[in-house]
Amino acid sequence: MAWFRKEKKPRAPRTERLEIPPDVWEKCEACGHTDIREKFVRNHNVCPSCDYHRRLRAVEYARLLFDENSWSETETEIRSTDPLQFPDYQARIKKARQVADYDAILTATGTLGEMPVGIGIMDFAFMGGSMGSVVGEKISRLAQRSLEKKHPLIIVSASGGARMQEGVLSLMQMAKVSAVLSQLAERRIPYVSILTNPTTGGVSASFAMLGDAILAEPGAVIGFAGPRVIKQTLGQDLPEGFQTAEFLRDHGMLDAVVHRRELKATVGRLLRHMSGQPAAAGWTTA
Ligand SMILES: [Zn+2]
User: Fold this and answer.
1) What is the pTM of this model?
2) What's the CATH superfamily of 55-275?
């Protein structure tokens, strides 16, 4: 009987693939959690599963900290030279410039929570965020702007240390930047230092640790020399979590560990507090 028989309908041919292309997925380096890239991006590149703070580019920090469309880059004309004629340095610089045209630090002025500020942001993607003459000079000039305009200075650090290819000229930047920061301190102009993963070597031994307030992102590695070198020198095992942001906070080396999503509000609150200004209308500090 025909009405009991299941009629087979010809299947319509599939016109589109249902699978999501593989380049849309991202995997967390810390816990292996896999999710669509957009989820990571919307979460400021923090893993939605384990809260691991992935590395951000300088421009992304600028967008995170500055008020929308309020900022413009400064000191764009400074470029590295090769004072020691170090082998391969010119070629490496040329290659790195394809990744970031601003050397290892992006400097800009704009507003944060409606307050005029200068922000310098190191970029690890440019030769490991190494501090050479350009980085030192750009920070000094940005700090000079803060002195002239009397607005706060913020530096976001991410660095493997001094730039070997510039030898002692790199090391000199530590003293140069420290000197101009002391002028800011004398004039009571706030300087907030933000340490991200990793902040090591000469950067950790100079401006990164000189902030009126020193903040760090969760889990960031912060230290001068690597743990293996210290272990060999001391001849003893190092405590667990040594050289992490949390360890340094618990031992009084920095003021607070701040989640990336709270970073702008926290800096805004600190700056208002330090400069004795009331919160601007519509500016939430929650
Ligand atoms: Zn994770």
Assistant:
1) 0.89
2) 2-enoyl-CoA Hydratase; Chain A, domain 1 (3.90.226.10)
